[in-house]
Q: What sequence folds into this?
């Protein structure tokens, strides 16, 4: 009863790239996004399933930072002791998205590369801009959940929660790309780019049609940082965010903020870093008045659609809440062990479904 | 590709497709149907299985990912003589209703429990921890309160052992079919797969309004694996909404059927469509039902349609239940202080977790067997016999288990007709089952409603003593409503004022606004939740404006004893009595308390009969009825067990088959308890009396009398002997097979109306109230219910634990309606946008505060069995209760639901500007 498209299960990145090029396939990591979408596609593309890719989900120390294999499940990232200690915003965001069942299977790489959740895009009978149609159907239609920073022809917000946390940590992603003129079996070229370089519509395939996201690199941790992740939604749990915010702060001994990163999601075609808010809190005491004034800057430059004006107030409120939570939260240690804990020291067995 | 995996301990090697899901592997390949397809996109969790001990949504997990893994399904959690503690807990706490979501919850909760116990021993997890762990699951019946109790209790170690050593597994809880539900053994229509079954898919109209000029399916029928097709819209007829059935086609499997439908060519004459009520009423709007096609409009209500005026797309007013309407209007006009407001409720979709589904099979030319997810096996068998010209006894309708209905499965589903027609054309069994998107389009809906309400309350006499109940001057109410049931008609929302304020002067009018949207169908308390949302807020708002106590005000008007009991109950509740002043909180989070009440009738199906049989194997109760989750099996078994004084679980309850047993009622209109319980009791009493006669004759006893578990009598002729106890088993051993049938007698004083079409409306009214405490996050616009207490006056409560479950479910559905659920169509072309359970938001475990249910004793002496149904009553007050609490907390009166964050923020901003600090 299944449609038999060609499928490959490569063991290495080189094989994966070659198979992709040969079949014009799409990569499948956890499959949680693809499975539903492909069920309604008339002619689904061939598949390169990354199940057997060697070391695809490994998490290991990397030059003072951390390299997280793109195939690591979101739950594993959220539970990883080193991530929790040194990059707490990443752990919190990855542990807050979706549901436990999805987080157990969905991968970090897949979360970054997933398709928009727009109800026009997901409609099996509609062909919107992103699916080769002429126009964004949400614009003239019902776009209650769409962007309030309208900067792209497509009005859907970027769906990745992990992305805004990674943006707050200025993470880089590692791509495997074909090694130019060499034989197809040659080891692929590895390239590291800032995470935001792969988030825009079709950014990854524009870098190269066969580009494979293989890992995320987190830089050296910041001691004594405080972080918070805030998600505004209707229901308490298991709901796509209306607005989401990741904040990192460091307070000096005098209570003055000396470091801040504020990133937001669900409001724009890609997650945004709000440098205006950051600048407004750095060098200032972490006081309610300062925070309120800074949070009000969150909407600077916003361009809401007719139905998304409410997101501005929600955004300012969520940024303020995240600033407060970060300020009141427990800071990360003064010094962080140079070699983060490896998988062997995990207290819980590694999550499944992400090999 | 080859897949090697281990399922429930057994190594399996299977050939699977690249896109095949793990759910397909366990259900279709291995026949393990405990895991269910609910939504198909990982939102509902009904498909959960464990992979290496970790619960996953198997609908989203490609089968190939199972390579080398250990898969455990719900079927493997229990052994023959030992349940998992979580299964015992779910049974003991009755954490299930229809049971369709139960295997998924059990699989997830078992993993959580095992991990928790390993780490934390018997420490108690918080509600928040449980909610987060189970956040990937939805229960449409609303069993969350019981799920909290079950999971927390199991983690505390309270269900490590069976309640009684050696007791049968089935006795672990009050619901007689609970064991089947927690082990995945319960078979639903979607689990039925007769030999040679074909799968159907449906070609649906992409246009909201069009005429079908021609259909060419020749290329589709020529494809290999395609067995037949039927037209669901006649040539020359119109389709009136996006998603309306045009062609149904059966093939060897779903993929083949889908591919074939793409080869069907339909020539549509596209007509101008009317999307939304504004467009429908606009000057020059195209008429949806032209000339004599009015009678094609489906009925969204349970009552028969009365002749009502049509004007283009407006049908109405329906005002049959008005009372002194002219005087009401004049009083309101003359009262400068009269309350005036407009309330709007959204389209709510039933979205039972088991979709509409049918498996039809012809046996010869003149006999039909249909497995149907239905609320009415008896009624459906009659209807199918009529439609297909068959003898009634040549039609069997089976529904062993039904995954929720809420009204949408009480009417003849088009899915059944398609399956029957296709089965005839193809000569093979055919299954039709909606996917989630289809279910959200055509699976039924509660119409959106706009209600304009005005209320005039006579001034109080200024005295210190409030008037006695019913002695205060009556109010005048004007309520005019406009319903959007898509292409359906029959709204009677304002009419509900006549049962709620029967002595008031009432200017009532209900209009249907016909639009090119999917048709409404009866939904748990048709018209009720929107009507009470408007009425009960109007009373609350007006009482506050006049500085009068809102409950005392209602008491002054009331002459109904059930309502009197409810009003008194409210006034006794500490949560209400000790509530803070309005607008007590001024910070980010603001708490408020609100109350709303409701009145509702009950139906009776006087033709209901229950059969009880005794044989050497024991007692069996049967009825051609069904259990949609409310607990009909248990109710039957309890009625019989009570008469015979035996444990409930020793009674075999047999339902779910129209051809076995006697006429059972449709599960709808709160009629099951009041119809079934008295009939079952009478049948059991007749059986008991026959057994006494048998004992007298065959065991040589003098004047035996029934006692719990058997009878007592003296050996014949020995007047001095002590009466001896004889258990029923000994009587059955000497008795012939005995079958007795019990009918449902008339209520004392008859019915409110004589039965029409087999349905009577009872003379009594049930009454209920809900007090809600909630918190408004004024910054992020979220409303969170902290606590809700419901009080119901319905007389004697049959099966109290199951009754509580049903009330909690009604409260939760009401909360979900008030805060989250909202069907949305594209404003241009009428396409459904909320086509999945991510976009159509049903409340989850984390959204439900602490719930309490009180059954207020007394009354209903004239009703057979002394108690009435409660399924609808309990879901009427929540939305108004929540809105009244929001007004109490913030001063903003919500007139439109759901209370999305954007609405809450806008509402708060509106009061901040105008009436800061004034009375809500």
A:
């Amino acid at each position: 009863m299944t449609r038999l498209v060609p499928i490959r299960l490569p063991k290495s990145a080189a094989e994966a790239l070659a198979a992709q090029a040969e079949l014009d396939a799409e990569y499948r990591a956890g499959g949680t996004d693809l499975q539903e979408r492909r069920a309604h596609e008339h002619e689904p593309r061939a598949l390169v399933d990354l199940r057997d890719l060697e070391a695809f989900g490994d998490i290991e120390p990397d030059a003072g930072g951390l390299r997280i294999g793109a195939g690591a499940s979101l739950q594993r990232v959220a539970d990883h002791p080193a991530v929790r200690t040194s990059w707490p915003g990443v752990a919190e965001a990855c542990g807050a998205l979706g549901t436990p069942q999805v987080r157990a299977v969905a991968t970090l790489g897949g979360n970054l590369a997933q398709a928009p959740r727009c109800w026009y895009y997901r409609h099996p009978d509609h062909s919107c801009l992103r699916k080769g149609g002429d126009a964004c159907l949400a614009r003239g239609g019902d776009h209650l959940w769409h962007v309030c920073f309208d900067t792209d022809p497509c009005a859907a917000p970027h769906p990745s929660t992990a992305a805004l946390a990674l943006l707050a940590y200025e993470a880089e992603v590692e791509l495997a790309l074909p090694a130019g003129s060499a034989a197809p079996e040659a080891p692929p070229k590895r390239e590291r780019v800032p995470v935001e370089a792969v988030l825009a519509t079709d950014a990854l395939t524009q870098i190269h049609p066969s580009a494979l996201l293989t890992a995320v690199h987190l830089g050296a941790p910041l001691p004594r940082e405080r972080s918070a992740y805030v998600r505004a939604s209707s229901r308490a749990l298991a709901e796509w965010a209306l607005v989401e915010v990741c904040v990192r702060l460091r307070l000096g001994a005098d209570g003055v903020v000396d470091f801040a990163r504020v990133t937001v999601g669900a409001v724009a075609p890609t997650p945004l870093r709000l440098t205006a808010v950051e600048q407004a809190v750095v060098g200032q005491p972490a006081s309610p008045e300062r925070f309120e004034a800074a949070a009000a800057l969150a909407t600077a430059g916003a361009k809401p659609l007719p139905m998304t004006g409410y997101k501005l107030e929600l955004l300012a409120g969520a940024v303020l809440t995240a600033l407060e939570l970060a300020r009141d939260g427990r800071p990360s240690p003064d010094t962080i062990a140079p070699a983060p804990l490896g998988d062997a020291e995990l207290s819980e067995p590694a999550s499944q479904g992400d090999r | 590709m080859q897949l090697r995996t281990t399922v429930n301990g057994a190594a399996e090697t299977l050939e699977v497709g690249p896109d095949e899901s793990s759910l397909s592997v366990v259900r279709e390949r291995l026949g393990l149907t405990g895991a269910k397809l609910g939504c198909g996109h990982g939102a509902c969790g009904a498909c959960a299985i464990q992979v290496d001990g970790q619960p996953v949504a198997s609908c989203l997990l490609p089968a190939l990912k199972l390579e080398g893994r250990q898969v455990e399904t719900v079927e493997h959690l229990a052994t023959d003589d030992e349940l998992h503690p979580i299964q015992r807990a779910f049974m003991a706490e009755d954490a299930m209703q229809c049971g369709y979501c139960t295997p998924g919850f059990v699989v997830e909760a078992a993993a959580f429990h095992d991990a928790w116990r390993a780490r934390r021993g018997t420490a108690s997890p918080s509600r928040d921890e449980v909610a987060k762990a189970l956040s990937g699951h939805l229960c449409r019946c609303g069993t969350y309160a019981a799920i909290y109790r079950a999971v927390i209790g199991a983690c505390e170690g309270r269900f490590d052992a069976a309640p009684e050593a050696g007791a049968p597994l089935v006795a672990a809880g009050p619901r007689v079919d609970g064991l089947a539900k927690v082990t995945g053994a319960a078979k639903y229509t979607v689990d039925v797969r007769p030999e040679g079954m074909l799968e159907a898919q449906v070609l649906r109209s992409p246009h909201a309004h069009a005429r079908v000029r021609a259909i060419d399916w020749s290329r589709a029928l020529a494809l290999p694996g395609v067995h037949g097709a039927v037209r669901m819209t006649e040539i020359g007829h119109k389709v009136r909404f996006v998603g309306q059935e045009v062609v149904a086609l059966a093939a060897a499997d779903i993929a083949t059927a889908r591919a074939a439908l793409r080869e069907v060519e339909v020539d549509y004459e596209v007509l101008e469509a009317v999307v939304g009520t504004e467009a429908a009423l606009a000057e020059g709007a195209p008429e949806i039902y032209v000339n004599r096609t009015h009678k094609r409009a489906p009925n969204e209500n349970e009552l028969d349609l009365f002749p009502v005026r049509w004007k283009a797309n407006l049908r109405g007013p329906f005002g049959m239940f008005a009372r002194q309407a002219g005087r009401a209007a004049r009083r309101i006009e003359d009262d400068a202080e009269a309350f005036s407001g407009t309330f709007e409720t959204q389209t709510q979709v039933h979205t039972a977790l088991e979709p509409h589904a049918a498996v039809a099979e012809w046996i010869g030319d003149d006999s039909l067997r249909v497995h149907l997810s239905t609320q009415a096996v008896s009624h459906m068998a009659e209807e199918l016999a009529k439609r297909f010209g068959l003898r009634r006894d040549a039609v069997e309708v089976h529904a062993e288990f039904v995954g929720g209905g809420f009204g949408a499965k009480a009417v003849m589903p088009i899915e059944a007709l398609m399956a029957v027609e296709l089965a005839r054309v193809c000569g093979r069994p055919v299954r039709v089952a909606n996917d989630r998107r289809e279910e959200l389009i055509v699976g039924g809906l509660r119409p959106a409603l706009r209600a304009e309400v005005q209320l005039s309350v006579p001034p109080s006499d200024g005295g210190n003593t409030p008037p006695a109940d019913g002695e205060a001057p009556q109010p005048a109410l004007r309520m005019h409503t406009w319903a959007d049931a898509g292409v359906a008609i029959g709204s009677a929302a304002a009419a509900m004022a006549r049962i709620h304020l029967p002595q008031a002067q009432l200017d009532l009018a209900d209009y249907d606004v016909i639009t090119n949207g999917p048709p409404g169908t009866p939904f748990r308390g048709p018209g009720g939740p929107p009507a009470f949302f408007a009425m009960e807020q109007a009373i609350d708002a007006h009482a506050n404006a006049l500085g009068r106590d809102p409950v005392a005000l209602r008491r002054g008007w009331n002459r109904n004893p059930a309502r009197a009991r409810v009003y008194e109950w409210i006034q006794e509740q500490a949560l209400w009595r000790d509530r803070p002043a309005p607008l007590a909180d001024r910070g980010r989070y603001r708490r408020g308390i609100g109350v709303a009440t409701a009145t509702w009738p009950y139906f009776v199906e006087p033709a209901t009969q229950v059969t009880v049989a005794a044989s050497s194997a024991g007692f069996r109760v049967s009825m051609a009825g069904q259990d949609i989750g409310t607990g009909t099996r248990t109710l039957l078994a309890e009625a019989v067990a009570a008469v015979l004084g035996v444990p409930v679980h020793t009674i075999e309850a047999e339902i779910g088959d129209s051809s076995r047993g006697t006429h059972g009622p449709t599960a709808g209109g709160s009629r099951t308890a009041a119809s079934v319980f008295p009939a079952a009791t009478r049948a059991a009493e007749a059986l008991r009396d026959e057994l006494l006669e048998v004992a007298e004759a065959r065991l040589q006893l003098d004047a035996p009398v029934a006692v719990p578990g058997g009878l007592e009598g003296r050996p014949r002729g020995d007047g001095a002997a002590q009466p001896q106890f004889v258990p029923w088993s000994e009587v059955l051993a000497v008795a012939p097979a005995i079958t007795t049938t019990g009918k449902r007698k008339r209520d004392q004083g008859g019915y409110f109306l004589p039965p029409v079409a087999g349905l009577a409306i009872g003379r009594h009214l049930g009454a209920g109230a809900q007090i809600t405490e909630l918190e408004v996050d004024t910054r992020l616009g979220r409303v969170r219910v902290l606590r809700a207490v419901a009080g119901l006056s319905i007389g004697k409560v049959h099966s109290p634990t199951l009754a509580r479950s049903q009330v909690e479910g009604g409260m939760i559905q009401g909360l979900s309606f008030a805060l989250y659920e909202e069907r949305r169509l594209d404003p241009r072309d009428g396409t459904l946008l909320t086509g999945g359970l991510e976009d159509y938001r049903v409340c989850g475990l984390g959204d439900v505060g602490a719930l309490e249910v009180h059954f207020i004793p007394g009354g209903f002496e004239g009703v057979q069995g002394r108690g009435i149904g409660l399924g609808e009553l309990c879901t009427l007050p929540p939305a108004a209760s929540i809105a009244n609490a929001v007004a109490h907390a913030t001063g903003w009166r919500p007139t439109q639901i759901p209370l999305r964050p954007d609405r809450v923020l806008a509402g708060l901003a509106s009061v901040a500007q105008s009436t800061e600090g004034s009375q809500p």
Summary: Residues 339-355 of chain A have pLDDT under 50 and may be disordered. Chain A touches chain B through 63 residues (CB under 8 Å). Residues 226-328 of chain A form a domain with the Enolase-like; domain 1 fold (CATH 3.30.390.50). Residues 310-328 of chain A form the longest helix (19 residues).
